[in-house]
Amino acid sequence: MEERRRWEEMDMDCLVNIFQRLGLEDLTLGVPFLCKSWYRASLDPLCWRVLDLEPLDFMPWSKFTKRFMTQYSLHHFSFSGFMKLVAMRSRGSAIELRFPPVFGASMHDLFHASSDRWPGLKKVVLPNLLMEDEVHIPELVAKWKELELLEMQSKPASFSEMVTEISRNCKNFAGLRMFGSIKKDDVLAIVRLLPKLKHLCFDKSYLPKEQLLMIMDGCKELEKLSVKDCIGFEADEEVMRKTSGIKIFESEGSKLFDDSGYDTDECDPLYVHVI
């Protein structure tokens, strides 16, 4: 009987083509430890263009963390150490970086994702940060010259400064997604500095109708506007008329008042829904 071809003997380009579709857990804990040819293929920068950390559980007691410590013979797990490994393997090739929503990421880790590490980042998803860390976001964003899409778990206190840096440094910037209390000053910064936005998402935010109309008047090139489950406006006739020129407008679940019937015109940011 003719011997079947072995997986480890596959052409290197074929292996790389397969491995670049895998997640970081497989690339760090699975593929490299199976055989030498797979290990070599897993080091190709093409496998590390999308760095999605969101599905990984970095808690000390998680299966992922314990397995990582075992595979790399570590006495303790460090998120910063994990980021250094990913940076070394990617060799600056990453175009997308998604941080875990809450646990693990610090401003130190974020600066490791600066232009020195991944100069070609086009999409970044930032985690929730402490208030003292948020002031550094404008400085950080300014380093991502190729940035096109930015997602944030919450609106930073330095939002206006961040938008200013995006306008100055990110010439291809086209999309923003964040949650929070969207105030008039925030909208003015967007329409003044980022009038050519293509995609904007404020789902589950506090967004008064006045601010929503300002966005639609100021960002004429919007192709998608998502404001689902917001508090502060209803999709009435005026709103629908203003959005008629936008290809995709999503406002399902948005309403003028909160569930208790309280007028949210003076909405406290702590009220806003957070994912």
How is this structure best described in words?
With 275 residues, this protein is α/β, with parallel strands linked by helices. The protein has a domain of 85 residues. It is built from twelve helices and eight strands. Helix 6 links the parallel strand 2 and strand 3. Helix 1 crosses helix 3, helix 9 packs parallel to helix 10 and helix 10 runs parallel beside helix 11. The C terminus is likely disordered.
Which ranges are low-confidence, i.e. pLDDT below 50, for 5 or more consecutive residues?
262-275
Shape: elongated
Record the strand order, biggest sheet.
1-2-3-4-5-6-7-8
What is the string of SSEs from the N terminus onward? Answer: HHHEHHEHEHHEHEHEHEHE
Short précis:
The chain has 275 residues and is an alpha/beta fold.
Topology of helices and strands:
Elements: H1 12-19, H2 24-30, H3 36-42, E1 50-52, H4 63-71, H5 79-90, E2 96-98, H6 107-111, E3 123-126, H7 131-134, H8 137-141, E4 149-152, H9 159-169, E5 175-177, H10 184-193, E6 199-201, H11 209-218, E7 224-226, H12 237-242, E8 248-250
Parallel strand pairs: 1-2, 2-3, 3-4, 4-5, 5-6, 6-7, 7-8
